[in-house]
Model the fold of this input.
Amino acid sequence: MDFVTQLLLAAITAGTPLLLATLGGILTERAGIIQLGAEGLMLMGAVTTCLVFIRSGNLALALLAAAAVTALLGMVHAFLSVTLRANQTMCGLAMTLFGSGLSAYLGKAVSGNPLPGILPRIPLEFLEPIPVIGAIFGRLDLLTWLSFLLVIALHLLIHRTSWGLHLRAVGDSPATADVMGIRVHLIRYGYVTAGAMLIGLAGADMVLTVAPTWNEGLTAGRGWIAVGLVIFARWNPVRALLCAYFFGALDSLGFRMQLLGSAIPPYFLKMIPYVVTILVLMYLGYRDRGKPSGTPESLGVPYVREHRF
Amino acid sequence: MSRQKAGAETLLKPVISPVSAGKSRAWRLEFDAIRVRSPWWTPVLSVLLALLLCAGFIAVNGMNPWTVYAKMWNGAFGTGYGLTETLVKAIPLLLCGLGIAVAYRISVWNIGAEGQLTAGAIAATAVTIYFPEIPAVWSIPLMLVLGVAAGAFWGLLTAIPRIYFGVNELITSLMLNYVALLALDYFVIGPWKDPEGFNMPGSPMFAASLSLPTLGGTRLHIGLLFALVAVLIYYLMIRFTRWGYELRMIGANPVAARYNGIPITRHILLVMVISGGLAGLAGMVEVSGVSHKLMQGISPGYGYTAIIVAWLAKLNPLGLIVSAVLFGGLIVGGYSVQTIGLPSSVSEMLQGAILFFLIAGDMITRFRVRRRSA
Amino acid sequence: MRECSVEMRGIVKTFGSVVASDQVDFSANAGEIHALLGENGAGKSTVMSLLSGVYRADAGEIRIHGTKVQIRSPKDAARLGVGMVFQNFRLVPTLTAVENIVLGEKSSFWRGRTWIKRKHREIAELAKRFGLSIPVDQPVWQLSVGEQQRVEIVKTLYRGADIIILDEPTSVLTPGEAEGLFRTLRRMKEEGKTVILTTHKMKEVLASSDRLSVMRKGKMIATLRTEDTNERELAQLMVGREVTLERRELERTRGGELLAVHRISAMAEHGRKALDRLSLTVHRGEIVGVAGVAGNGQKELAEVLTGLRNWAEGSIRFDGVPVKTASVRKAIASGIAHVPENRMKSGLAGSLGAVDNLLTKSYRSEAHSRLGILKSARNRQWSEQLVRRFDVKTPGLDTPVQQLSGGNQQKLLFAREVTQRPKLMVAVHPTQGLDVGAAAGVHELLLELRAAGSGVLLISEDLDELMQLSDRILVMYNGTILGEQTRESADRERLGLLMAGVPGEEEKVV
Done:
């Protein structure tokens, strides 16, 4: 395989967890709830996958468990920010701190243990003869295909269905949605939970493909990069795909360059994704100054029905 | 007459009531949107509830939570040595927590104390590497100044994107944490590695003249005084100065502050510099007062724990001291349970849980049950 | 007697200790336009919100078409055929008109192109039937206020409402647009729908309604046939005492020129031009009123004058000195006071007490701080005096000001601004949301400033207020001053035409 193909493939591999987490963030924030707990949720998804996979040897069960645990945490987030109307920034921070602590505690038992299997790959033999495409799409794993499907499904959901219309209304103007008979709280609970599940799956994908074993703090800020990607992608699933792969490529670029014998110390190469995240957000801020940013209008504002001041 | 009465009735605004689900009933929950302060006992209660929740997780691991907590308490506060260690850990927590509290006063969500601390530690170490010969009278103040400046600079890197490009400071400050930690890795594995260190990552040990004076022969060092003085200054500034007033105004209503000519961007810049500078100071006292060399893991997450310290203290100066000591104890207690086979991350888990219950508690205490007037 | 489509009996609704609706009886018939008249805060919006399910009544009985019903949510109300057009439109700004109109419809999960097309057609037809024209494809935030209101009305009609409530529908419209609205309402009436509108404007009620009900302080005072009553009687019912409708005569106090704005232009957010070569002058001892429909640049004008917004071209002279750049501090120092549009949003810090809120303008001065240190004890004393002098009713100096009533908050704000002895006061909607007594107090303060030789720029949407107080009234339209009338020549109809953007020949167009 040539360098470009390798890089593309690596971009997809490293980008898939970012994509799943970004999609989760988009769902949550489209409903008007800030999701800053992605890092903690990814860690919890990863550690649950490891624990269940190593104990039971059943991958499907492990993924289900990861989704269930993060869904539960998502509901906690929803309870705090929707029902109790707590500060959503602090909620997300608490989620991240609690997730890192709990995952480190629970994961100690399996830390460094190899997983009993990998994600099944879907061989598409008819693609093999095609150059580049065959090499990339011929043997992708299950979660990567799932992420493709999710991008399309979420795009259609948001723009082509009644549910999507309700979601957009709830995120932009919950008071209006409420008057129109849409159950704002229910929808917010639903999407925060679903979003948390996707972020949990992102953690699972991370541990299954990128890092082959559980290590404390394994996500190394990927959750926070996903938080940035949500803004970068302007809350749009299709853009999320492009942005996530761009960052996946950056992420693996450092590693590739090291293999190629680059003289730059690896620590600086590893800094690239973090620094680029900041620079990209700065560029977006500069380009879109004075323009509406596509942010859901009621992002971070708890909804209270009887407002009377 | 009737006019007068109506005026008195509307003097105090009504409590707004949230959606009371289901059918009408005699009692309902109401949310008090006006009262902003929650009672003093919420922090206490949230710590207790967090202990209860984590007891569950400990029990899952086949341990008796009571034994574990007793062990932690003993390790942290039970012995003279433990107490000293707790206070040693409380110093960086207090400095970082204070920095965070200053920023949070005007809703600048700095979560980059970890990186700012690391930057401070690196800069302070640079003095020992490049000027090993200068006498202690000069070297320690120089380390201090450079450490604070490096932390402040790291804070500035968060403030500038926020002010001029509208980038959320949460993301920037966190990304910069990773950048700083990677830079630390570079220095301790690369150019500054101790040639006599058996190839272990880490800078050479500092000369005695480059270490902070200790207090009474213990591991407790003079950094404690720095931290306490900083808290005192913070209290005086917040309470009595124009600057404190401006922060109060911005924190309470940034729009009104702008309408009254208070320059918000300048304050964000200043607050991030102070916040970063205090964390940088924490980094300096850690390398010079505790580890006496630069190495990986000089901070077991002080920067993150400090967020909870600040929040638990509700940004209050005295509260900061209390909660810094509490969390210092939690870290030391976490180490002490390793001897009975539990990972030290017990304490991190507890920290996260405490923050959760604090947030929930602040809001729950604002709901009250009321009788429906019918 | 025609069928009674809405009947409310003994309706009680309290908010905390405030009784917003006290044993109210109300009824409206099919095929009539029924006006619910009352001052701000009389409880009319509350009663209508109860009918449309936004609030739930504490006690009382509602019958729709003779059947007793329970309205627990807007959904219940919609099912019963009750639709409400709110004062603050309930539209999602980022969605298009059609998307807004079909919002909440649960049928048809999938919404492909054919579905959208069909809805477009359906909605266009419905709008045409009632003489409403709306752009269906643009996001709502790009529409004018009048257009947005029409979208709201089509929405209620689309959802099958036959009882349509409009809350203060004309407060955001130009007189011309209001005409159009009433034509639509009459079409609805002819189709047998029940139209209920709440308002505090007596003139339009007399011109357009069949019957009317008057509320005052949460109580229903009377229900009358429109043809049997007149303006004077209604005013008396609304206020509860005989009112004089005459304007007060004021002594002329006008002095030299204080503020001269010459052909300034300024941009609003998102690069829209908000001020377009606007010129105006304010003299000492003069109240200059600025009338206009919201969104024609009034907000930006106030921001430019108070140093909050930069301008692109043109010049400003204040007190004989040219103003170079926008700076709030310089504006404050040169003697410009500002009572902003939304006192809790941009005037006061709700969670802080009276002392901190009174200090905002003056804490930098020698009298209140020295070398960066606040003179706490003296400031407290000073605040106590101000609170007493301006009669702010507060339980204590440290009570968060968000716990005070609107009138007391406004008094506090005025105390802060007036005590600076400003040369120019820029007041934006200073009486919005205040009851009559509090509003009169604010008017008194503005007149005192005038008498003391200050200039006042009063930006308001309330024509009565403007005509009562101003020496001159300027009409703003599309970022510029379209016309000017003096106190003596002010005439409601002319002002209305100007607000709609129709300049007359006799006006000097500046």
In short: Chain C has two domains: 4-239, 257-335+421-499. Chain C touches chain B through 51 residues (CB under 8 Å). Chain C has a mean pLDDT of 86. The radius of gyration of chain C is 25 Å.
